[in-house]
Design brief:
288 residues; 9-stranded mixed β-sheet; UDP-N-acetylmuramoyl-L-alanine:D-glutamate ligase; 37% helix; 4-stranded mixed β-sheet; alpha/beta
């Protein structure tokens, strides 16, 4: 039986010019892990409002459990205004405050009881002290910790990122984020991605570092191995959530013990497929 995975953080509605789509990295990652057969729980908080009710309905339709999703009487369900530039790259305006700033740890820990679990988390959900403290309590209980750095200025204080990397076993960054970490924590040593990545991995005793680079593919680095994959070319319909799909496939491969090159290939394939679809949680093709 597969171990349980807890995905912690924000649930938001990505609001584009002409539509609104349910998302948030923790939800997206949980969805793809669930599709791979992992028992998943989403730890988040939504408002007691119309968007919150629609959130619960859609998450239920996705087949995900609702037990550890809290409701807040005062704070609204999260929203993110998304705009795409001429290169189809998204930018985000994140509403604050939101219900996911107020995640309560006691409720979650009582629901998880003594069940072993792995933990997936990011940076954005740590912008408020309440949710940040709740995350730290869960980190103490978790087995393997998977951290997607996913910088979202101005909610990316270096000291919070540093504490997260120190707590993690597996870290995912994109190329630009890796350069920021190099400047913040390694005195801007520069060099090739592999060199900077290995320095980061060794400095923080990580088991695995993933570095993505858009349509140029990605790299995986461990103490003993370094693999690259150029990715898969697709017609991009919506890039939002492709990184989350990549991370979910990476987690699946890592926990399943796949060889590193196969792990990366599957992660790139899943990320590319989601980028070719509309929305971050598209329906998977039925297996024939």
């Amino acid at each position: 039986m597969k171990d349980s995975i807890v995905s912690f953080g924000e649930i938001v509605w990505d609001q584009f010019e002409d539509t609104s789509i349910l998302g948030g990295a923790p939800l997206n990652v949980a969805y793809h892990l669930h599709a791979s057969g992992w028992p998943v729980r989403i730890v988040s908080r939504i408002g007691d409002d119309e968007l919150g009710r629609e959130t619960l309905q859609q998450i239920k339709q996705l087949g995900l459990p609702l037990m550890t999703i809290q409701q807040d009487r005062d704070l609204p369900t999260g929203r993110v205004l998304v705009s795409l530039d001429e290169h189809n790259e998204p930018s985000f305006e994140i509403a604050a405050p939101a219900a996911w700033d107020n995640i309560q740890a006691d409720t979650v820990l009582s629901q998880l009881a003594e069940t072993p679990f792995h933990l997936v988390f990011g940076t954005l959900a740590q912008r408020n002290e309440t949710s940040r403290s709740s995350l730290h309590r869960l980190l103490k209980q978790a087995d393997i910790k998977f951290y997607d750095v996913n910088l979202r200025p101005p909610y990316t204080k270096p000291e919070q990122v540093l504490a997260s990397i120190k707590a993690a076993n597996v870290v995912k960054v994109n190329r630009e984020e890796l350069m920021s970490l190099d400047d913040w924590f390694m005195q801007g040593k520069k060099g090739r991605v592999e060199e900077i990545g290995r320095e980061l991995l060794n400095s923080f005793d990580l088991s695995l570092l993933a570095v993505t680079d858009g349509d140029r593919g990605a790299q995986l680095i461990t103490r003993d191995e370094h693999v690259e994959h150029k990715g898969f070319q697709v017609n991009v319909a919506d890039p939002v959530g492709s990184g989350d799909a990549f991370f979910a496939a990476l987690i699946n491969g890592f926990l399943s013990g796949l060889p590193l090159d196969e792990c990366l290939k599957q992660a790139n394939r899943q990320g590319a497929w989601v980028a070719s679809q509309q929305g971050a949680t598209p329906a998977y093709p039925e297996k024939g």
